[in-house]
Design brief:
heterodimer; A: about 110 residues; mainly beta; six-stranded mixed sheet; B: seven-stranded mixed sheet; four-stranded antiparallel sheet; globular
Chain lengths: ~110, ~120
Amino acid sequence: GQQVMQIPQYQHVQEGEDFTTYCNSSTTLSNIQWYKQRPGGHPVFLIQLVKSGEVKKQKRLTFQFGEAKKNSSLHITATQTTDVGTYFCAGSGAGSYQLTFGKGTKLSVIP
Amino acid sequence: GAGVSQTPSNKVTEKGKYVELRCDPISGHTALYWYRQSLGQGPEFLIYFQGTGAADDSGLPNDRFFAVRPEGSVSTLKIQRTERGDSAVYLCASSRRVAGGLNTGELFFGEGSRLTVL
């Protein structure tokens, strides 16, 4: 079945440093979504990408979808303590409504 | 309601017992998902409903797990003969996705039901 892999598993950064998490799928995806889960909370939707090579920005967050629609990345510029949490990518294949999540990247920000 | 509501928030049971977990999705959302999340892992897909029917139940781990959504709104996840390995947070999510839509759309998650099997 479809597998979605994320690296790194953990990332500790000093406040103000940049952060990037990478997502790779074993199969071509029709779309990819990113979610953020705060400690003790539930996943909260950040964005959805559907087009090959798509790049979207939300303030300090930049999301990319690869040309082959098999990988994606999330980059945070100048991290803040409010960015702490686990970031998950999740993808679905063509004709499928089963959203497969990666294991997530847990971000810690040192003030 | 304003968001996805799940009850109970916590459930402690003994091995071999039967449990039911309830999910009340956002009003008007036709798609409903159940996921299971173990500590340090990403949500694991269990089942997806479009309306009243289970459109994809390929994630249910075995026949001890069953879910229903009889009126296309509230859903119940049922686990028979619980085992210690069933301990996890069970997450429900809903979306506006309609049948024939191109993708799942944004999933709105509930707070989850934490199941502990002793």
